[in-house]
Amino acid sequence: MKSHQTTQTMKPATAAKKLGVYLEATPAEFREGDVSRTRLAELQADPPEWLRELRANGPHPRPVVASRLGISIAGLARGGVTEPLTTAQIEALREEAPEWLAKERATQAEVRKETVRIKKRNAERAAEADGPRS
Questions:
Q1: Cα 83 to Cα 6: distance, rounded to the nearest angstrom
Q2: According to the model, what pLDDT value does residue 123 have?
Q3: d(Cα 70, Cα 66) in Å, to the nearest integer?
Q4: Cα dihedral across residues 51, 57, 59, 63: positive or negative
Q5: Which of 32, 37, 27 is nearest to 12 (CA)?
Q6: What is the DSSP string of 60-79?
Q7: Cα–Cα distance for residue pair 42/83, rounded to 1 Å
Q8: Tens of pLDDT along 8-37?
Q9: What residues pair up with 10 in beta bridges, in sequence order?
Q10: Cβ burial, residue 72 (10 Å; 0-12/13-18/19+)
């Protein structure tokens, strides 16, 4: 009895998300077929020129834009940024430093601080619960 192992594949949109690139900017041959896990690993390990170019210059998907600006995806939407941006556009936005961007960065900093506080509190509670019992 032979066991057949099927190749796991994913849709191009999923592969683009895992690669951190904007699907519509990828080459047609990437968008038109499924991507195997093996192919994805190859692209991650040894990215072709088109992938290096997209990662460096964009256009970038919203999660990447938000990360590079130091804000959340929701903060992007609140700021009116709904389209993918290139690296040059992201840099211009940073230099321009609009009021909404400063506000969103402050909000994100507060969220991170609160996350750290809650994590510390939970760790302390866990330590108390696991402590010596008399």
A1: 37
A2: 92
A3: 6
A4: positive
A5: 32
A6: B-HHHHHHHHTS-HHHHHHT
A7: 29
A8: 888 999 999 999 999 999 998 888 888 889
A9: 35
A10: middle
Q: Is the peptide bond before 59 cis (omega within 30 degrees of 0)?
A: yes
Beta bridge partners of 9: 36
Q: Judge contact between 30 and 12, C-beta under 8 A.
A: yes
Phi then psi dihedrals of residue 59, to 5 deg: -65, 145
Any idea which residue has 């904007």 for tokens? Answer: 22
With tokens 């402590």, the residue in question is 131
For 79-98, the pLDDT digits (tens) are 989 899 999 999 999 999 89
Q: Whole-angstrom Cα distance, residue 80 to residue 61?
A: 15
